[in-house]
Amino acid sequence: MQIFYPGDAGYDDERSGFQTGLRHEPQVIFAVETAQDVEDAVGHAESHGLEHAVQATGHGLTTATTGVLISTRRMNAVEIDTAAGTARAGAGAVWQQVLEQAAPHGLAPLSGDASDVGVVGYTLGGGFSVLAREFGFASDRVRKTEEVGDVVTALEFELLPIDQVHAGEMFFEVRYAREVFDAFHTWDLPGHVTPALTTLGDVVRVTFASTKPFDVDHLRVAPVLKEEFSAKPFAEAAGKPLPPHAYQGDNVLLQDLPLDALQRAREIAANSSAEIFLGVLPLGAALGTGATHLIKLISPRLGVEEQHEEVFEAVRPFVVGRSRNFRYAVR
Ligand SMILES: Cc1cc2nc3c(=O)[nH]c(=O)nc-3n(C[C@H](O)[C@H](O)[C@H](O)COP(=O)(O)OP(=O)(O)OC[C@H]3O[C@@H](n4cnc5c(N)ncnc54)[C@H](O)[C@@H]3O)c2cc1C
């Protein structure tokens, strides 16, 4: 195991992750490789009265620590048990590794829309897969956790016999956002389809995926700028890595989402003093009856909590909680 102190060569690289708007400021970094290293790191924090934080990729950084940083990126072994249909991933493993090792066996994990996200952080937050409504949360598939205190050193979880999926995306000019949001909201969505609607500046994007065929004609309410929809290997639908950048984001879980409240949220986001990308994820089906929708907001800079709260105000009566995932650089 390597240990880094401020000023050491490698200290900055080790504490840096996908989030470039915020970085941990640790007194010491333990770049762990084994469960014993994690124990040593936690022990060091406890004996010095310091807080500790864990970082694998930095995608889900919320608040920066000034104590001990446990960097797990080297602890990233992935093993597939084809007979049992399971995978075991070390604390620092990312989905791309599992996707690559599982695919030759016709197996897939319930990973999300970015393959460089960490398996453990994602799963601890529930894990909303691109096939979430069809198969439920990634956390539903966990068979075993290996832990040292509150640090998970490895996870064992079920893989699914998924090979090809029907998946794609459609883009519209943002001036048709009202019509697209209307259509998305009134879509008589089969339980096996997982869609997402996102505003991205000048465009509105709808993505969708399922292991079974379905059609998206209901969404053709405006000229389609660009469309791609086909049967493809699951790994292709499971997202491409993005370059590191600065972003702040938060979300709300809703027990209902009336169309007028959704349109109001969209309008507030579109007219905000901050650039806000608004995403809508319908829940339900295999995800259960706890919440009907998730609205997530992402901005390409920090310090926009107030503007995000203004958008959430439009759906406030329906809020039942927050997802631990989709919270970025926010307490
Ligand atoms: C571009 C992008 C796409 C995303 N897509 C999806 C998606 O499709 N579906 C979805 O559900 N989520 C998605 N997320 C959210 C993501 O799952 C969370 O941000 C998750 O926390 C990232 O985990 P990480 O290990 O990669 O990040 P890190 O920032 O390294 O870790 C995040 C947090 O997870 C906890 N953690 C990590 N490892 C451990 C451990 N070994 N033991 C204990 N706690 C630990 C810690 O609290 C840590 O602060 C996305 C995020 C981004 C930025």
TrEMBL record:
* UniProtKB keywords: FAD, Flavoprotein, Oxidoreductase
Q: Where is the FAD-binding PCMH-type domain?
A: 22-213
| Protein's name according to its UniProt entry | Oxidoreductase
**Which cofactors does this protein require?**
FAD
Q: Which family does it belong to?
A: Belongs to the oxygen-dependent FAD-linked oxidoreductase family.
Matching entries from InterPro entries are given as:
FAD-bd_PCMH, FAD-bd_PCMH-like_sf, FAD-bd_PCMH_sub1, FAD-bd_PCMH_sub2, FAD-linked_Oxidoreductase, Oxid_FAD_bind_N
Q: Quote the Gene3D superfamilies the UniProt record gives.
A: 3.30.465.10, Uridine Diphospho-n-acetylenolpyruvylglucosamine Reductase, domain 2
Q: Can you name the source organism?
A: Lentzea cavernae
Which Pfam family name is an example for this entry? FAD_binding_4
